[in-house]
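Weekly structure sync, notes
Attendees: PL (lead), two postdocs, one rotation student
Agenda item 3: pending single-chain targets
PL asked that the sequence for the first pending target be pasted directly into the notes so everyone works from the same version. It is reproduced below exactly as submitted, 279 residues in total.
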Amino acid sequence: MVTGLVACTSATPEDTPENASGTAGTHEPGATTSGTGATDPAASRRARRAPPPMLPNLRSLPAEDVQIRPADEGGRELRFAAALANVGTGPLIAVPGDGPGCPTGQRRTSQVIAVDANRNGTYDRGTDPGGKRVEAGCMLDHPTHDHWHFDASASYVLTRPGDAEPIAATDKVSFCLRDSRRLAGERWAGATETYGDCDRDSTQGISVGYADVYDVETDGQSLPLADDLPDGVYCLTLTADPNGLLRETREDDNAAVAAVRITGTQAADAPSTACAPAS
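Predicted structure, written out during the meeting:
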């Protein structure tokens, strides 16, 4: 059993978050006047500028509690816990609705973009309202979890070190988006839990400083292992929002890689350098 595997990515939930422009929001001064008393047009435009958006930044955390178990259909499978963390400046807000573009029985999903109304660079639920809505995919009624999921929330891939060819993969893992666990560290100490319901009409989301966690026992948290897969070190990559459906501050830090040593029916951690990208 592996607990708390080390990611081979340099991005961590403790990194400094960014907003849509990569910098913290600042207060804009009001219009000023020239020596003649005339209003400065440029200053007036700045004062009227819309508040900046506060976007989420989703990252998969490294796989935890990695195990090998017998598969229901025979053979063996790699099982693990997974988490989607929001380390951005704004919450992820997903609202279900009706409309075209989704398979029968699913619901069209909109992402609500929060705005920094007081321009202090920090999301304040009471003062920073939701702004525009953008299309963000579909929600579905999960057949075994008994609640609604946001589709294509994550992907899982197992590869050999230095080889991008998948040994096993699932590219469309759906999640009920909610605040399951506050992120560790002093920076997130003031994070507030907001999202928890995943009914048909519920607004789903992940607050800043929280992660949505799916434990090792949850259906879908597995990859099949071929009977003839040799023992050795493998790379388990978890990627948040693999299809790029959501607006984020960054799109290049969504993945986390864990090095796993597979020996028969046992899994153990391996040196993280085994799965580090080539320099």
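Discussion points:
- The first helix runs from residue 41 to 48.
- Helices lie at 41-48.
Action: rotation student to compare against the earlier draft before next sync.
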